[in-house]
Design a protein that fits this description.
Elements lengths: L4 E5 L4 H12 L3 E6 L17 E5 L9 H4 L4 E4 L6 H6 L1 H20 L5 E7 L22 H20 L3 E6 L1 E3 L12 H10 L4 E4 L5 E2 L1 E3 H13 L5 E5 L5 E2 H8 L3 E4 L14 H7 L7 H10 L1
Parallel strand pairs: 1-2, 1-4, 2-3, 4-5, 5-6, 6-11, 7-10, 8-13
Antiparallel strand pairs: 9-12
Helix pairs in contact: 1-7, 4-5, 6-8
The structure holds nicotinamide-adenine-dinucleotide.
Length: 302
């Protein structure tokens, strides 16, 4: 029997490397395309070369992505730059990576008969949503170049689905966390910050008064949704991908424990963010299983 071949762009990053683990577990051969701008080889070092092949390539530059896509069954396009403040400082870089990069990946995938193309979009497309929980029908409100470029990528993915009948699905991720979370960057997200602060015995930095809430989804729940979707007949769909539960930053800090330090609010960040996930739950019969308490406990054990 021929094994399924999956391409993961950005596969050396946090979400991509976790997805790799799940796909290898179900018997896929995985091809990683990554330029290692934030991804790390060590995120994948536990895999055997016969299961996971890693290629260093920049999706925004490479004119020759086609050769990697030969015989591909599934494409998971996760490569991208993913920080808000750097995107405001350098919009062009974000445009080249996230928009041009997405066109290049779509062009390569278009030429082969893939079964599913999955795109990593972002809940940042809702800006400051009027309705909480927020459904996929909420108004698009792009507050910064990161949100704009991720949304342009999604629009391209949907246009390619219509124009070229590609089996494309876009997932708008909420706050994803889990093993190998990015903890290094100056602008890493709250969970990553808390994790590195806990490990370095530093106080947890809380933005604003900490009463703002976020929807945190464990990366294993996210990967399970991906696997259910690739087995389905669904195409040309956009789904929120969150836990459907809201947690305040103060609650997260409490679960981590230790001292806290309050820092000023940052631009473009909503007070509350919560996914309405009924569409995805209904379409693939999936639900998130890992509670925030259990997820953080697992994180602290690593
Ligand atoms: N983590 C979250 O909570 C979250 C939320 C919303 C959306 N997303 C999206 O999910 C995707 C994965 O996020 P992550 O948290 O794993 O981030 P990450 O930074 O760990 O992973 C991104 C990966 O893409 C690679 N990459 C970036 N530009 C590239 C290029 N031009 N060519 C090849 N590789 C490139 C990086 O080296 C890295 O390995 C991103 O597209 C991000 O926008 C993440």
């Amino acid at each position: 029997m021929k094994l399924s071949k999956s391409i993961i762009t950005g596969g050396a990053g946090f979400i991509g490397s976790n997805l790799t683990d799940h796909l290898v577990r179900i018997g896929h051969k995985v091809i990683i395309l990554d330029n290692f701008v934030s991804g790390k080889k060590s995120n994948l070092s536990h895999h055997k070369r016969k299961n996971v092949k890693i290629f260093k390539t920049d999706i925004s530059k490479s004119k020759n992505l086609d050769r990697y896509f030969k015989g591909a069954d599934y494409v998971f396009h996760l490569a991208g730059l993913a920080e808000i403040i750097p995107s405001i400082k350098n919009p062009k870089k974000y445009f080249v990576n996230n928009v041009l990069g997405t066109v290049n990946v779509l062009e390569a995938a278009k030429k082969v008969k893939i079964k599913k193309f999955i795109y990593a979009a972002s809940s940042s497309c809702y800006g400051t949503p009027k309705k909480i929980p927020t459904s996929e029908k909420e108004k698009i409100d792009l507050k910064h170049p990161y949100a704009l470029t991720k949304f342009m990528g999604e629009e391209l993915v949907m246009k390619y689905a219509s124009l070229f009948r590609m089996p494309n699905i876009s997932f708008r991720f909420f706050n994803v966390y889990g093993p190998r979370l990015n903890t290094s960057g100056q602008y890493s997200a709250v969970m990553g910050n808390f994790l590195s602060q806990t490990k370095n015995k530093k106080p947890l930095t809380i933005v604003g008064n900490g009463k703002q809430t976020r929807d945190f989804i464990h990366v294993d729940d996210l990967a399970n949704a991906f696997i259910k979707v690739i087995k389905s007949k669904l195409i040309k769909k956009i789904y929120n991908l969150g836990s459907g539960k809201r947690t305040s930053i103060n609650t997260i800090a409490k679960i981590f424990g230790g001292k806290r330090k309050f820092i000023p609010l940052r631009p473009g960040e909503p007070k509350n963010s919560l996914a309405n996930i009924s569409k995805l739950k209904k379409d693939i019969n999936w639900k998130p299983k890992i509670s925030i308490e259990k997820g953080i406990k697992k994180l602290l054990q690593n």
